[in-house]
C-alpha cells in the first residue's frame, strides 16, 4: 500500500491557490491521501502570540480561509485528511473558523480535531529547562515570558485520525510530523519502528517547504533554470509501506522535480546528516539514495532511524521593548553621495537626540545591505555608480518614545537632508524576542479534542 501526502503551503504567506492542483491530483490516487499545510515558523508563532495578546479570539493563521476555501469541500467529500499547524497561537480560534467554513460549504457534520499541549506557559516553573545548543539567553526573567511552545510530534495527530478527525488543527508541532502522522496511521507503523518512522519524517521534511523541492527556491537563471515559475506545482510524496519514497508534483503545473531539487531540500536546515533530530525519530541520511525515475518523479531510499530524543525543543518568547523601521529614497545623478550624506547626517542626529543605548542599523539598499553588519560596512561594495538607493534605518529600544523619535529624524530628512529625498515610510511595533530550550518529553502531553458541528464531540 502507498500513502500519498501533498503540501499546500510551506509557510504563512505562501500562495493561496496552490492546493487546488494538489487536491485534483490526490483525488486521482486510489490510495489513502492527506493534505498538509505548514504555515508556522518561529517568528510567525511569535507574531501570532502578539495578536493573541491583543485579541484573545485571534492568533491563528491569518490566511486560513484563503488556503482552505478552494479545497475543503473536496477534501471532506473524497476522504482526504487535512492537517495543518494553522492553529498557531490559538488552535481553538482556527477550529471555529474552519467549522464556520465547513458549514457554509454544506459539511455540517465535519469532524475537526484540535491538538493542544504545546503551550506550556502555565508550567514555566515546573519544567526542567535545558538550554538548546547555541542558545545564550538565560531563562531568569520568567515574568517577561509571553509564550512558550514545545515542538510536539505526530502522536496527537495520529490519535486524532484514529478517532475519526477529517481536519486536524495544531499549534506548534514539528513540520515533518504533519506528514508522518497520516503515513503512520494508514501504514500502522509501530512507535519504535525507527527506520520506517525516519522515512515518514523524511517525507514530511522533503515537502514541508512547499515549492522548495519543486523548483521555487531552487531557481537561479542561467545556472538552474526552472520552467513555469508563475504556476509552480506544490509537492506530493508517495510513501510505501517499506519506507520507499517518491517525490512528484501535479501534472500540468510549472516547476520540476529532479535529483538536484530533492537533494537541496534533503539537506535544508540539517546540521548533522547522520542525526537530524525530530520529536518522533532521529533521522540518519548517511546511506540515502536519490534516483530520477521519470520526468518529475524522484525516488528516495536508504533512510535509517534512531530512537526519538529524550527532550523536546521549546521556543520561548519574551517581550523585549520596541523596534522601528524607516526608509527614504535617493535617485538620479550623484544618488550615492546624497544617500551616504543622509545616512551620516541621520547617525549624527541620533547621537545628539537619542540615548546612547539605542541600537541602530543603517542600510543603503541598492548599494550594500545584506553584506553589511549592524556596526560595520562592507568595505568592498562599489556604490558610486548606483542611481537608485533607499536609505533604511532600523532601531530598537526599551522605550517606544525613543524609537518613534529616531524614525521621526529620518522623516525630517525630507527638508533637512540632501536634495531629492522622497518616498518616506516608517512603522513601529512591540518587539518579541525568542529563545530555544529543551524540556523532558515526559513533562509534555498532547491533548486531543474532537469537534463536530459547532461544538465538542
Poorly predicted sequence stretches spanning 5 or more consecutive residues: none
Which percent band covers the strand fraction?
25-35%
* Record field, number of beta strands: 20
Using only C-alpha atoms, the radius of gyration works out to: 24 Å
Q: Summarize model confidence as the mean pLDDT.
A: 93
> Could you describe the largest sheet, including whether it forms a barrel?
11 strands, mixed
Q: For the terminal residues, how far apart are their CA atoms?
A: 31 Å
Considering DSSP H and I runs of 4 or more, what fraction of the residues is helical?
Answer: 25-40%
Number of helices, where a helix is a run of at least 4 consecutive DSSP H or I residues: 12
Describe the strand arrangement of the main beta sheet, using strand numbers: 12-13-9-8-1-2-3-7-4-19-20
Protein name: DUF1446 domain-containing protein
Domain Acyclic terpene utilisation N-terminal: 3-449
InterPro entries: AtuA_N
Pfam families: AtuA
What does this protein look like?
It is a single chain. With 457 residues, this protein is of the alpha+beta class. 27% of the residues lie in helices and 28% in strands. The chain is built from 12 helices and 20 strands. It has helices spanning 19-27, 42-54, 64-68, 72-77, 91-104, 155-162, 177-187, 194-207, 259-266, 335-353, 400-411, 413-416; strands at 2-9, 33-37, 80-84, 111-116, 130-131, 145-150, 167-170, 236-240, 245-248, 276-277, 282-284, 289-294, 297-301, 304-306, 311-331, 359-365, 388-397, 422-440, 447-452, 455-456. The strands form 3 sheets. It has an 11-stranded mixed β-sheet with strand order 12-13-9-8-1-2-3-7-4-19-20, with helices on both faces. Strands 5, 6, 15, 16, 17 and 18 form a 6-stranded antiparallel β-sheet that branches. A hairpin with a 2-residue loop joins strand 19 (447-452) and strand 20 (455-456). Helix 6 (155-162) crosses helix 7 and helix 10 (335-353) runs antiparallel to helix 11. The mean pLDDT is 93.
Amino acid at each position: 500500500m502507498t500513502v500519498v501526502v501533498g503540501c499546500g503551503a510551506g509557510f504563512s504567506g505562501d500562495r493561496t491557490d496552490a492546493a487546488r492542483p494538489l487536491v485534483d491530483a490526490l483525488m486521482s490516487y486510489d490510495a489513502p491521501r492527506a493534505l498538509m499545510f505548514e504555515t508556522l515558523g518561529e517568528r510567525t508563532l511569535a507574531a501570532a502570540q502578539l495578536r493573541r495578546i491583543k485579541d484573545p479570539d485571534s492568533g491563528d493563521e491569518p490566511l486560513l480561509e484563503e488556503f482552505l476555501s478552494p479545497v475543503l469541500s473536496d477534501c471532506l467529500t473524497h476522504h482526504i485528511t487535512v492537517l495543518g499547524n494553522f492553529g498557531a497561537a490559538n488552535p481553538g480560534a482556527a477550529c471555529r473558523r474552519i467549522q464556520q467554513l465547513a458549514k457554509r460549504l454544506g459539511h455540517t457534520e465535519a469532524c475537526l480535531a484540535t491538538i493542544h499541549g504545546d503551550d506550556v506557559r502555565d508550567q514555566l516553573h515546573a519544567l526542567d529547562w535545558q538550554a538548546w545548543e547555541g542558545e545564550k539567553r538565560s531563562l531568569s526573567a520568567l515574568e517577561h515570558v509571553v509564550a512558550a511552545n514545545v515542538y510536539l510530534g505526530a502522536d496527537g495527530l495520529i490519535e486524532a485520525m484514529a478517532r475519526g478527525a477529517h481536519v486536524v488543527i495544531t499549534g506548534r508541532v514539528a513540520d515533518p510530523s504533519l506528514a508522518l502522522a497520516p503515513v503512520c496511521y494508514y501504514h500502522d507503523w509501530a512507535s519504535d519502528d525507527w527506520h520506517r518512522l525516519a522515512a515518514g519524517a523524511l517525507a514530511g521534511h522533503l515537502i514541508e517547504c512547499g515549492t522548495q523541492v519543486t523548483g521555487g527556491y531552487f531557481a537561479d537563471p542561467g545556472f538552474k533554470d526552472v520552467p513555469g515559475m508563475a504556476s509552480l506545482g506544490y509537492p506530493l510524496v508517495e510513501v510505501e509501506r517499506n519506507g520507499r519514497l517518491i517525490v512528484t508534483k501535479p501534472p500540468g503545473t510549472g516547476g520540476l522535480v529532479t535529483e538536484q531539487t530533492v537533494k537541496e531540500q534533503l539537506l535544508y536546515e540539517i546540521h548533522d546528516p547522520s542525526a537530524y533530530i525530530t520529536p518522533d525519530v532521529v533521522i540518519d541520511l548517511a546511506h540515502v539514495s536519490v534516483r530520477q525515475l521519470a520526468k518529475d518523479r524522484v525516488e528516495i531510499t536508504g533512510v535509517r532511524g534512531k530512537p526519538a530524543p529524550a527532550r523536546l525543543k521549546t521556543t520561548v518568547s519574551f517581550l523585549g521593548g520596541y523596534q522601528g523601521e524607516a526608509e527614504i529614497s535617493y535617485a538620479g545623478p550623484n544618488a550615492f553621495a546624497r544617500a551616504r550624506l543622509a545616512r551620516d547626517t541621520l547617525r549624527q542626529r541620533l547621537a545628539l537626540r537619542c540615548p546612547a543605548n539605542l541600537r541602530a542599523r543603517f542600510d543603503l539598499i541598492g548599494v550594500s545591505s545584506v553584506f553589511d553588519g549592524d556596526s560595520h560596512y562592507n568595505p568592498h561594495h562599489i556604490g558610486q555608480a548606483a542611481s537608485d538607493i533607499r536609505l533604511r534605518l532600523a532601531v530598537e529600544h526599551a522605550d517606544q518614545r525613543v524609537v518613534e523619535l529616531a524614525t521621526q529624524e529620518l522623516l525630517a530628512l525630507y527638508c533637512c537632508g540632501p536634495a531629492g529625498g522622497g518616498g518616506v515610510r516608517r512603522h513601529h511595533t512591540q518587539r518579541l524576542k525568542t529563545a530555544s530550550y529543551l524540556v523532558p518529553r515526559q513533562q509534555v502531553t498532547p491533548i486531543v479534542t474532537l469537534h463536530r458541528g459547532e461544538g465538542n464531540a
